[in-house]
Amino acid sequence: MSMPSSAYPVNNAGVVAKPGTPQDTEENLDFIFNINLKSVIRLNKLAIPHLEKTRGNIVNVSSIAAIKPLAGVTAYSMSKISLDHYMKIEAPALAKKGIRMNNLNPGYVSTNIVSRIGGPQDFFEKRAQALVTHQIPLGRVGTCLDMAKAVSYLASDDASYVMGTTLVVDGGFVLGGPEIPGLENENEEKL
């Protein structure tokens, strides 16, 4: 893979909820949208003048939650749907300036984001195992390295004709699968 000839922004900020705030509050909605969407737009506006000179590219990290409805994370999903549409609207105009913009939509990845929202670790481990067993055709949860390689591809010269796309890297999760037995509503209040 050939690496890009210039630096490029990777907008990888994301929160699922404001700690201690109910999901259905305006405070939670504002918190999530400020980080997951507005910060990306602001950072891109700062980067675009430089990228016009270098003919660079932008990679925004979205989520499979923008593609497949996930119960219990409505505001998060809405923010990532908005991020995908922001990219689709902005990418053609940026292409005229020599800038490529794409989104990476990761699936379940082994990170500490779920532990930061306050749930018990055994619940998340049980959910991850159920996902692997029942809903991820490749049979494993993604790794940070999987996502880094996808970002590197999108930013590389090998992807010079890839523009305005959402690259789903999820082990096949969005293709569907059976419900996770015993986890449909279990411990939902812990999320």
UniProtKB/TrEMBL annotation:
<dbReference type="Pfam" id="PF13561">
    <property type="entry name" value="adh_short_C2"/>
</dbReference>
<dbReference type="InterPro" id="IPR002347">
    <property type="entry name" value="SDR_fam"/>
</dbReference>
<dbReference type="InterPro" id="IPR036291">
    <property type="entry name" value="NAD(P)-bd_dom_sf"/>
</dbReference>
<protein>
    <submittedName>
        <fullName>NAD(P)-binding protein</fullName>
    </submittedName>
</protein>
